[in-house]
Amino acid sequence: MVKPILKLITVAKEVGVVTRKYPYESPLLTEEFRGKIEIDASICWGCGACVKACPSNALTIRESMDVMELVYFAGRCIFCGRCADVCPTGAIRVTKEFELATDELEDLEQVVIHRKVKCPICGKHFVPQPLEKYVCEKCAKGEIPTYMMVCPECRRKVGVKKMIRCKGG
Amino acid sequence: MRVRPPKALRKSIWVFHLNTGSCNACDIEILDVLTPFMDAERFGVKLVASPRHADVALLTGPITRETLPKVVNALKAMPRPRLVLAIGACAVGGGIWHDSYSVIGGFPRLKKILEENGVIIDRVVYVPGCPARPEAIIYGLAVLIGLLKKKVKKEVKEAGKGEG
Ligand code: SF4
Ligand code: SF4
Ligand code: SF4
């Protein structure tokens, strides 16, 4: 009976104390640890690539008449970091924040509000402003073609009209 | 806001581990909390085998349809004040299973079902993470019994205007 206990004491002495004193010392975070994500609203385009990539639908898009909201719900996020990988602007940063415990689900939400561009022909709102600005910068060097700023539906109509006019000569 | 713990909880809290169909990763993190590595017994947290003895239910998993009646019974058996710590993305919002046919989809939906059945939950704290870190669980416990304040709050930002 005494022998195993003695053995245990020697093992315990070798190993020492392993208990982390967590609230009183820093948590055991490795370099690869991923926590909640942070969306930088000043550079996000509202392209929605992150929403497509998110496996748990923690990132969703809420649309209304003239606003598009990118909603991040940390409660459902599995901290995989796929959104940060696919984000074309690097707006998503993976932080090491994990102390997210709360009694209100609302606290876990992060909302980025995007105003939408208004179509000059039909007045419908269709695409987030920063995304439109980027496309204009990228595609139209110099002047912007008139139907670049209109919504897809009106653009189709304008295009067809133009074609008919060309054919009719 | 710091909440003063209910009178029944000024001493050691006893926890009951309630797995509602989780993938077991969260359960292993709970083991990590209770065993010497993180040693929650430093704070008097002790695992008990029956919900009738427990102050807090450590609920993991998205609550599958199969477990729902058992979960309701287990929570019903707990004495008041009835406290729940919903651990992991599954328990908080359904996680990656949130739209699956076979799950209820997280504690918020279970809470509604419980209310319909007359089971009152006095306080619930959500601990996100997949799985939630042992440190996060200890932090959540501390928030639940009112030792620490919560850190997060809702953020609404306008695009193109920077932080704020
Ligand atoms: S992928 Fe990046 S730029 Fe596109 S909506 Fe998501 S955060 Fe914004
Ligand atoms: S980290 Fe993963 S789960 Fe979380 S928002 Fe990004 S893609 Fe979705
Ligand atoms: S939150 Fe993640 S780790 Fe925890 S039970 Fe659900 S899937 Fe498993």
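The two ends of chain B are 22 Å apart (CA to CA).
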